[in-house]
Structure prediction request, 1098 residues.
Amino acid sequence: MSTALDRQIRPIYDALDTQSNKSAVLACNKVLKKQPNNVLVKALKALALVRLQKVEESLLLADEVLAKKPTDDGVLTAMMHVLRGLGRHSDIVAMFETAYKQHPQNEDLGTQTFFANVRVGNWKAAQQVATKMHKQFQDDRYLYWSIFSAVLQANDMATPEALRPVLLKLALRLISSGNTPSYFNPDRFYVHLLILRELEMYDDAATLLNHEIGQKICETSLVCDEIRRDIMKLKGACKQEGEQAKVKILEKKDRNWLEFLSLLDATFWDIASTSEPASEDVKAAVTEEIAKTRKVFSEAATVDGLKDRSGLLALLELEKRTKSHGLWTDACEIRMMAENYFSQFGDKACCYEDLLPYLAFEGEELEQWTSFLNSRKSFDTPDTLQRSINVYKLLRYNLTSAELTPELELARAQEYIKVYLDGLKFGVNLPDTELQPADDFAILVGHAYVSLWKLTGEESHLQSAAATLEYASARSKQSYRIRLLLIRIYHLLGAPALALDHYRLMNVKQVQTDTLSHLILSRAAMWSLAPLGDITYMSECMEASQIYMSNSTETAEFIARAFSTERYSQIIDFIEFEDRLDNSLQRDLMKVEHVRMRVAHEPLNAELVDMELIELKFIFDRIHHDNRDFEVIPNYQPRCQPSFNEQTLPLKPPGAGWLSAYLKVYIRAFQELPLRERLVKKRQEEIDDLSEDEKLFYEYTLALSEWVGPYHDYVRPPPSALLAEAAKSNDLKPGHPLKSMAAAANGSATNGHSKKDEEPPAVKESPELIPKFFDDMKSRFDAVISGTALPSELLHIVATTQEAYLLFALETVRFKPNSIIKQYKFGQLAQSFKDLRVKASSILNEMSTVLAKLGEEVATPDGRKAFVQASSSIQDSSGFDHDFVLGVAKKTTDARKQTYEGIAKGLAKVVKNHS
Amino acid sequence: MSVLRPFRATDMFKFNNINLDIWTETYGISFYLTYLSRWPDLCCVQEAPNGHMMGYVIGKAEGHGQDWHGHVTALTVAPEYRRLSLARKMMSLLEMVSDETYKGFFVDLYVRCTNSVAISMYEGLGYSVYRRVREYYGSLGLGRASKDEEDAFDMRKPLSRDPHRRSVRANGREFVVSAHDVS
Prediction:
């Protein structure tokens, strides 16, 4: 580059570096005036434009640059960013391929071409590029790029079954062609083992692994050791593994639980590896093995003492397996071991979950275990406090249904409160960044009250739970576990705003929004005040969805980077991570929630319909991954009861079936083309996922589309006319994809666009199901109001009715103008619509009035008093003062009032907007 | 008693019980993938028999010449799994890999000067303070804005490649540098 030109170009780069994109464009224009064909400047201008969101202009320039087939490094780099910004990933591939073809000696261009293919997951092409590079540049690294691309192609769902072994065998052949053996580095060794495992060549893999270097690698590389364990298991070399594990446990003092599992598997191998009933000889041999293993574990336990739990826990597992294989064991053996375990490690927080798998006691064993635990309650020091927490949790775990009466549960709740308040003394001097040692007692209180609510149906118990947990949360500000319980309880109590507060205080961010946003966004439309212009939940959806953008812009880059650093062991995981996030169920559940709220928030115009339709159709065929984390919610309910999570879900969590049902509902409502069979068909999986009210709603939407569909078809201009119109307005814009669509439409244009000559479809009465739906919802509403159902159920009914009304408005908006009614002689149809609208409006208005009145009632001094009285059980027993409970009562009732009134006003507004 | 296994990209879907704790930061995707795509062998997880994650360590290898070393970027254990020597086990793996695979001279880490529990644990593992780094941590914004909160100790432990213990010094607490001087 000449210095003169360099002087001109530098300011452009400077402007781009500082994100001054407007001045970058100006600087580019200045150069382009004198040198209109400067490709680099054009590319840089395209980059500035794409950053300014001027997509159309950028596209035009980008196409011009690409047509010149650039090979200059600066141009290629700039264009890579431009095309990435435009989402034209396959053009990046083509651009580098073209450049590499022109300069096959250029190693860097080859690398970039390879990476471009990797980023889009084009493994076949990537493999070809890498092979070519290996031939050209004779670097083993390119050989492994080619090998691993072949492995990934074999792994790809799109690759035909028969081709997979062929690819893997090719990869294996390539490995032996390398200049250095695979154990040159652990990641190459990993690739070799992976291929052998996939080809089921376990003996060959074992040979590599038993080699001195192989062993050495597995000692320092967890990844290789992991695949080694896997291969040995597949090979059936369990006993050999067991022998090695024994040495590691006894001589090297290795306390990786995997070693203990290896030894356990080896011990029972002769029985567990065959489906045949074991002969007496085999049983005797295994019993002998058990004795030997018991000795190993006992020795480890003795050596470790209080330092490590492995030995004792392995002994428990050994007894459990012995019993499950029907071999003789003393009935009380497991209980005694559990007692021993508790005596030694009862002061560790994880003692409870360590012991859970071994505690299915009954009868006399259970009695002895219970009395053992009861004798271990003590509250003298922080250590004994932790021990007592475990005692209470373990006792609760084994409660039988007979012991779960309201009276006994109430007594338990009161006892938990008492010990909680006592236990607070151990945390008085802790800074507010620390957790209170007694927190888990408060969590147990929450569990007992939720259980009481389940047993009696009385809302007051949830209020008591809320009051206690709020108290505990104020004392242990960083306890996210307490907040998780509160989030669930506030939703049940119809106080979503308080749930949202706690959720926000948990500081959920980045990838956690995928796994945890379900806590507040599952069926969020039912809490949303979107009709009033409150976009809180819509913004939460948008914010929580940021992570999917990061995923699509960042993750692929790291897949390429892992190739460049030769960390092959990570690549399959990176791909899985990208896929699980990209096709996350929660992602699309949030999308649907957002649409449901948007329809209530905005006028129903073509812009909304078109945009949402494209997006919904796009996600309709996805195969989803459910990444939602429900496990993080604590559970200390007895084993005969459902978990806390299950008990406190306002409705069962929406799954893939729910998503599919609602996608169909909205795609049908937005659809401009005749209904396709796929959208009409109901699947059992969908029905199973819906609540009772949602089932009615689903039937209603089907009936509605079926009824209104033919009129839409008749009135709508033919598709070819629509496309011609669209093409015309798009003609000025470059890079548009409409041509091919228009051509396809022309091809099938004989199919029904001459309708205008036909008579309009006969006007049919509305299907009975439609008015009936609104009646049904009204009676559901009335029943719930007069019963003891929770606010969450009431709001669900209201939200469903409102949604039905909005969909009705959406589907009939086309037939509103008088000109249409006249032109198509739809007078009678319009009358039917009007009648239905009037009916539905009056029901919505009634709901609105009742809800507003309920809101008034709840937040009065009387309402608060009722709350405080309901929570009397927590005051009788403890130091909770009246004012604290009153404070929580005020917060809860105010939040409920705000929700009720907001939703009531929203209903009225929806009716007004669409009548 | 726990499973020691590699940290995987998909662990980001299941580390909530660890990362919701206030002392553990949740970074963007690129943070974790940067470490995994370069030093996967310095990142590992301790897992409970029921599959819950208990804690993890994320480390890297860096420095030039005599300064080439393993670095502990994040070490964390969920509250319910503390006091089980998990940190000790993860550190020993990281030291072993820094020593044998990367041939580093030492391992180092930063710790808040106020975190006396962690400091004494590291001292028990053979680490000593090499220097004090001013304002290494941003204020937590918890209203206890003492200097010690923001300053870090850079603690080091020599590996087998440094038999003469040149990477550590006796009176490290008195050597103060500013945050700009460290990488």
In short: Chain A touches chain B through 61 residues (CB under 8 Å). The longest helix of chain A spans residues 882-914. The radius of gyration of chain A is 34 Å. Residues 802 and 907 of chain A are 7 Å apart (CA to CA).
